[in-house]
Amino acid sequence: MKTRLISIATLLCAFGALNVHAETVADAMEKCRNTDNSLKRLICYDNIAKSLNQYDGTDASVSQLQAYKSQSAAKPRVQAEPNKRPAVSEPTTVQKPENEFGLEHRRDLTAEASEISLTIASFKDSLRGKKIITFSDGSVWQQSDSAYLKIEEGQQVSIERGLLGSFFLSVEGVNKRMKVKRVK
């Protein structure tokens, strides 16, 4: 039953898209926006995206977009002279990558380290039984799962990057790891 409805909706939208040759993209998007059924609305938007060249004014829009991209890429970046303050507000202190490990959601990750080794300075348990670990470099990490991993002060551990912004703390020689997040 669902497949029949989907195929009928697809055909209706396809025939509807054939009749909109003389309208602009904005008009077509407005028609799609006014559709009550979410599946039909999605199919309508997909049909517009697949056949952009049939609408009036799209050539001008594409050329404007390409011109804008080339202008923004060609803008020279302002470089500060050594004895002058920078013209653009830029951070003046250069941070070590190890000090920013775990705070990547704030910047580009293309050339970042995938694992670091740290020494535990101290740790304590939170009210919910999660470990809060302070390392010798001053960074503070908190356990975010319920795994048990025996750790001690002065112990060398490694934190590696996982998928989707996750981090895992592991001890060498132990086939177990604890999910952590950086607090400070």
Can you give a write-up of this model?
The protein has 184 residues and is α+β, with helices and mostly antiparallel strands. 30% of the residues lie in helices and 20% in strands. It has four helices and six strands. The protein has helices at 2-18, 25-33, 38-50, 58-74; strands at 115-125, 131-135, 140-143, 156-161, 167-171, 177-182. It has a six-stranded antiparallel barrel with strand order 1-2-3-6-5-4. Strand 4 (156-161) and strand 5 form a beta hairpin. Helix 1 (2-18) crosses helix 3. The protein starts with a helix and ends with a strand.
Give a quick precis of the structure:
The chain is α+β, with helices and mostly antiparallel strands and 184 residues long.
Please describe the topology of this protein.
Elements: H1 2-18, H2 25-33, H3 38-50, H4 58-74, E1 115-125, E2 131-135, E3 140-143, E4 156-161, E5 167-171, E6 177-182
Antiparallel strand pairs: 1-2, 1-4, 2-3, 3-6, 4-5, 5-6
Give the fraction of residues assigned to helices: 25-40%
Secondary structural class: alpha+beta
The major β-sheet equals: 6 strands, antiparallel, barrel
- Estimate the mean pLDDT confidence: 75
Query: What does the radius of gyration come to?
Result: 27 Å
Indicate the proportion of strand residues.
15-25%
Distance between the termini: 54 Å
Envelope shape? elongated
Q: How many alpha or pi helices?
A: 4
Question: Helices and strands, in N-to-C order?
Answer: HHHHEEEEEE
What would you call the quaternary organization?
single chain
